Amino acid sequence: MAKYDNIILLSDLDGTLLDSDSKVSAENQQAIKTFIEQGGHFGIATGRSNLNAVAFLDHVAVNTPSILYNGCALYDFEAKKFLSLYKLPNEKLVPYLKYCLKEYQNVMIQAYCPDMNYIISSEQSADPTVVSDHRPCMFCRLDDIIGEPWIKLLCSGKPEDLKIMESKIKDFGIGQDINWVFSSEIYLEFLPPQVTKGSMLIQLREFMGPGYTIYAVGDYNNDREMLLAADVGIATGNALPGVKEIADRITVSNDESAIADIIYNMI
After folding, report:
1. pTM over 0.90
2. Could you give the 3-state DSSP secondary structure of residue 155?
3. Given a cut of 90, is residue 267 above it in pLDDT?
């Protein structure tokens, strides 16, 4: 029996596996390689799409189904296929989105579909850094994609604008139709109802079958449910205080090769 047989390690990307330069350290790369060679199952749990996430995974093998879109999808990178996928109720969200596009023009709104990330805000007011970080993507009008399957919506902008947008959810009566979470100070995400990284971790456990111990690591509010659902929930040293409070263990920061520390010192 290999050292890491029957162990699943799920890592958030931004602020966890990735350092502050959005890179995977050499230490993390080698630790993951060793982990897999000795029987371990490594996957990611991110708000990013399958198309976008692979751009950050050079020299990193992913050999177990992974959680994408903050829990909307379970994806097999080896087979390149979705194992589970949830979608938003488009029509119910259109009036709210039209209002936000008009009133909060400095907030960039993106609709994630299975094959493309559509930016429905004005290209002239788009933050080029955010656009670059979420490729592949394309600009279009909201009306052009109403018939497309929306997996999640991502709103990026000033925290004060996003807080106001959050407060308007009740006014439009859509609170029961969605789940929403701040995945960073400048990102507000809208997901299908009751969808979280934690709900998809439960599906992953069912898919993999009995006998596995699941370790999960993250740093932000969108990781909370995942850490609680895992057998061992681990917060990075740079995690929010509220995330550290609910974690079973705390590792070093994302700039100190947190995944290597977990593999060598905690599992």
Report:
1. yes
2. strand
3. yes
